[in-house]
Design a protein that fits this description.
By secondary structure, the protein is an alpha/beta fold. The chain has five helices and five strands; from the N terminus they run E-H-E-H-E-H-E-H-E-H. The protein has a five-stranded parallel sheet with strand order 2-1-3-4-5, with helices on both faces.
Length: 122
């Protein structure tokens, strides 16, 4: 992967995606597109062309793992690294999520001051 510039963040909780967007854009200098659901992410991912996809695990309807599986079927973004952000990050949950192809699992709540650095490190 080249330099991290564009992040697609899929999160159903408005407060979480607002804080993450501010942190990633203002502190991290990244371009962020937020989506509030898996279907919204699928509809906009190709046009946005992210360098990294950050997915909330627990979302109503289409959860993060299901969204990742659907994203992997889109040739233009099938190889884009994806990370999960989760409230529960016990070792078995992390193992399950990384087995789906995630490059990292970040804990929620996250530190807004460190979020961009965490994403760059993955």
């Amino acid at each position: 992967m080249g330099e991290l510039k564009r992040v697609l963040y899929v999160e159903d909780e408005p407060d979480s995606h607002e804080i993450a967007q501010l942190a990633l854009e203002l502190i991290g200098g990244l371009i962020v597109k937020t989506c509030s659901s898996g279907p919204e992410a699928l509809a906009s991912v190709v046009e946005f062309a992210p360098d990294l996809i950050l997915l909330d695990v627990m979302m109503p309807g289409m959860d993060g793992p299901t969204t990742l599986q659907a994203l992997r079927l889109i040739p233009a973004v099938a190889q884009v690294p994806a990370a999960f952000i989760a409230a529960r990050v016990d070792p078995s949950e992390i193992a399950q999520l990384t087995s789906l192809g995630a490059v990292a699992v970040l804990a929620k709540p996250f530190d807004p001051m460190r979020l961009a650095a965490q994403l760059r490190s993955v």
